[in-house]
Design a protein that fits this description.
Elements lengths: L2 H13 L2 H8 L3 H15 L4 E2 L5 E2 L1 H23 L11 E6 L1 H5 L2 H12 L2 E6 L6 H5 L5 E4 L8 E16 H7 L14 E3 L6 H8 L8 E3 L3 H9 L5 E4 L4 H5 L3 E3 L6 E10 L3 H23 L6
Parallel strand pairs: 3-4, 3-5, 7-8
Antiparallel strand pairs: 1-2, 5-11, 6-9, 6-10, 6-11
């Protein structure tokens, strides 16, 4: 197998196009295109759908998954058998995770390993319900998401549960949810939704017995989400870990105290990912449960 061809495929997918891939590899765009065509000729099938950005085919996904694991195993080999100047340098891992994890517990969980191993992270954010598709497409070496079942060739480890609360500013509560309010109030109160794949609000409303439509803003940013809540623009489901100060100060309040939503989080990683991926897995297994647990034990003002 010609790994220069696989490197070209990985670069095109990771960089989101042929032009940026060429810059990364130090080649001309034409040379990258020729390598992809040669790879497809050898495989006997297309490896990319020429879209913007390019999308790997099923054959391309298999090759990308293989390339991810080869990179990590090669790192182990170069540590054990340094080949001239090739044994040095830092390793970069592409990880997919939900934006709420990135905004809360992730940095504290992985910081020790990044410092100890000189690890560089390339983080891709997706909703926790759909992030596994990047593992399946071969784009990343690991993924944090809400799906317990791993893709072929990978393992899954439960890290804990993230507690989400339905909160809003006091004046918005007084306007839409006065004492004695009934379920139809959800049809008038504007919500804030992270994105099209975000189903937390729908899940919470279903638990409250409401199945109808509701007005909502779209805000694809965890930090911006909280800012909109604090500005009184709408109500929304937000991790308890992310709004500790806002709850303690009374800036935000629960709409229905004690009726949050628990979202399980799983770490998915390749079975043959080498020592570094195994070390990252061990680091997450030891630190993530405690960090996530802080959201479970948060004492809320009455």
């Amino acid at each position: 197998m010609d790994y220069k061809l696989l490197q070209a495929l990985a670069a095109v997918v990771e960089q989101g196009g042929f032009e940026r891939a060429a810059l990364t590899l130090g080649l001309s765009q034409s040379a990258v295109s020729q390598r992809i065509k040669l790879l497809e000729s050898r495989v006997g099938a297309p490896v990319l759908l020429r879209r913007s950005p390019p999308v790997p085919t099923l054959a391309g996904q298999r090759l990308l998954n293989h390339m991810q694991q080869v990179r990590l195993l090669e790192r182990d080999l170069l540590q054990d058998v340094p080949m001239g100047e090739q044994g040095g340098g830092q390793t970069r891992l592409r990880i997919a995770l939900n934006a709420d994890s990135l905004a809360t517990w992730w940095a504290a969980a992985v910081a020790p390993l990044c410092e100890e191993q000189g690890l560089l992270l390339d983080l891709l954010t997706d909703d926790q319900d759909v992030g596994l598709r990047r593992m399946r497409s071969g784009e990343v070496a690991g993924c944090v998401c809400a799906t317990p079942t791993p893709v072929a060739g990978a393992r899954a480890l439960k890290l804990g549960e993230m507690r989400y609360l339905a909160v809003a500013r006091s004046d918005l509560l007084a306007t839409y949810f006065p004492p004695g309010w009934e379920a139809p109030a959800w049809a008038q109160a504007p919500a804030i939704v992270f994105g099209p794949d975000d189903q937390l609000q729908h899940r919470f409303l279903a638990n409250c017995g409401y199945q109808g439509e509701f007005p909502y803003h779209l805000c694809p940013s965890s930090e911006g989400f909280v800012r909109m809540l604090c500005a009184g623009i709408g109500w929304g489901m937000v991790p308890a870990l992310q709004i500790i100060q806002e709850l303690e100060q009374g800036l935000l309040r629960e709409i229905l105290p004690g009726q949050g939503v628990e979202v399980p989080l799983y770490w998915h990683y390749w079975r043959n990912g080498g020592r570094l991926l195994e070390q990252l897995t061990q680091q997450l297994a030891s630190s993530a449960p405690g960090l996530l647990g802080k959201g479970q034990t948060l004492a809320l003002p009455s």
